[in-house]
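Hi F.,

I've been meaning to write this up properly since the lab meeting, where we talked about keeping a consistent format for the predictions we share between groups. The idea is simple: the sequence comes first, exactly as it goes in, then the structure tokens exactly as they come out, then a line or two of notes. No screenshots and no reformatting. I'm using this chain as the first example so we have something concrete to point to.
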Amino acid sequence: MGATPSLNTTLAQFIASSKHLTKFVLRKAKIPTPLDGQFTAGEQDAAVAYLLEQAGKRQVVKPVDGRQGRGITTGVSSPKELQTAWTRAMNASESGKLLVEEEVPGVDVRIIVVRGRALAAATRIPPFIVGDGQLTARELIAKLQEARNQHVYLKDRRLKPDARYLARHGVTLDAVVDAGRVQFLNGTANLSQGGIAVDLTTTIPREVLELAEHVCSCVPGLGFAGVDILMPSLSTRDGASVIEINTSPNLLVHDAPAFGTSRSVAAAVADALVTPPAAPGETDAPRQSKPQLGGIMHTIRGRLRRH
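Output, unedited:
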């Protein structure tokens, strides 16, 4: 239904749909995940108290049931910032619940796992501009949007500069950006918020892919998911922290990245839908006893190109 294939049980969907419940499962399995507090609409004072207990550590405020990066505010460290972030998160939440979560430094990596096997990995980074010492931030953003209009997927995702985020870094839209300066436009890597995807499938350590597989094995009935992991370094699993599990991940992050090799994740999901699960004792490698839907999809694409 929607972007969620029928490879998950109802229980798995229920767990993954709640960031708070997902974290509970992760902690039970001793999987590293950032500290957080959950609050309802009437508990803003308690959230402020929790924030003050963190002694100035930057927090991420987001709806418990949020999707596609909606309602997320990063870098929250004061009650005033929390008040703004609170309203934004509550407006994006159907449940009226949000998380105040420790902001962990690192690269945001999405790993797709199908029936226990990690098939693709990509990082999603916030949109950014590079200054030339002549153009303003607003003009550089316009040029970036022109470039994005040439990409099969990004052309439909408009840039969403966050004025508050830019101000925190001493940048205004009408100021000239210093030559060579790399300036992110917001703190959200989600593609729906203007981020871009870079394929990492063959460059990150195998141990990180195994971590994603382990995460999925800890949720009963989870046959398909995108596991979000923050990595302080892309060369090691050390310090990696699991943020959440997404059962309706955007497959075009992997099938059509902005940079790197395209991975046929959509075809793999299609194959899994029409191929029976492996029996106990068997490997879960794709069976070859009948034509696979993914292969058929590739054949169709090839014929379309020729015509």
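Notes:
The chain has ten helices and eleven strands.
The CA atoms of residues 164 and 186 lie 9 Å apart.

If this format works for you, I'll send the rest the same way.

G.
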